[in-house]
Amino acid sequence: MKKILISLLIFVLFFCITGIVFSSEVWQPKRIITLIVPWGAGGASDLTARILAAEMEPILGTKIAIVNQPGASGSIGAKSVFDAKHDGHTWLGSSNSPTATYQVQGLTPDISHTVWQAYFAIYTPCIICVNPDSVITDWESLVKAFKTREVAVASAGIGAGGHTAAETFAAKMDVKYKHVPYKGGNPAIVSTVAGETEVVMQLSMEVADMLRAKKLRAIAVMADEPLLISGVDKIPSVTDFVKDFPSVGFYFGLLMPKDIPEDAKETISKAFKIAANSEAIKKMAEAKSSVAVSIYGEEGIKEMGKAASQFGWLLYDVGVIETSPEEYDIPRL
Fold first, then answer.
1. Which residue(s) pair with 295 in the sheet?
2. What is the H or E stretch that residue 211 is in?
3. What is the CATH class of 33-123+251-328?
4. What is the pLDDT of residues 62-121, one digit of tens each?
5. Range(s) for CATH 3.40.190.150 in the chain?
6. How far apart are the C-alpha atoms of 218 and 243, rounded to whole Å?
7. What is the dihedral of CA 41, 47, 48, 49, to 10 degrees?
8. Which parts of 144-298 are beta strand (E)?
């Protein structure tokens, strides 16, 4: 019996020691993680980044410091992340569309969409909204306004989600408009609420609260199904008016250089998976009329490729950019 007990003790000690060795090999942050949001506070990128950071901090055992660095449609913040050491300690809080098109826009000529590893937690469609005092009250008056006068449309910046939505609308309906870019989704929305601009086509999660407060009026959601927002009348789909109108929506979350150390990538991926499936993300998605997702790894890389093709070619076709995406080996979808 004594020999058996000794053998069991040795067996247990072996696995305890082995476990310690294994745990010491798992990557852990060596300092505070810097999460750069390349837009102003209050927008979809900022809201998503802050919730993910709060959920991931206890898992990673370190503070995640959020820095808002708006400018040049978010490309300044993206470049700051890419220029930092690729060691897993500097992240970007943004979405698929602008990040994937910075190169074709000439904003980051040497930084391709292929260098980013994406971690997306939220999907949100764009909603065409107007100032409540606008004469635009429905789809018919919306189209009439664009066809008969210059309508000022606010967005988070060139190539950002709201701008892409506006360009999609303009191309599909064969109209022109006056683009008024801001340094983020929230200031763009505020401009329409204040009457500085008449129309905004930002994301559902950004406009939901203003719709509930009756400070914006929804005309249509740029998705193939109507949208329900608590406290708001059902928002019709653009396909109710134009059958083949394309959906315009975007993924939000974290991005970082793909070539960070593999052990760092593995640890961050595990922490993200837990955070993306947290109650906090689910509650935000429900409150902001969005969809909670958990996209990372190869799936995240594929989504960046799809965004580069879909939105890069759109910006080229409507004349926002002059250089063909083909020159960057981006295929047309």
1. 120
2. helix 204-212
3. alpha beta
4. 999 999 999 999 999 999 999 999 999 999 999 998 999 999 999 999 999 999 999 999
5. 33-123+251-328
6. 19
7. 50
8. 152-155, 178-181, 199-200, 217-221, 249-257, 291-295
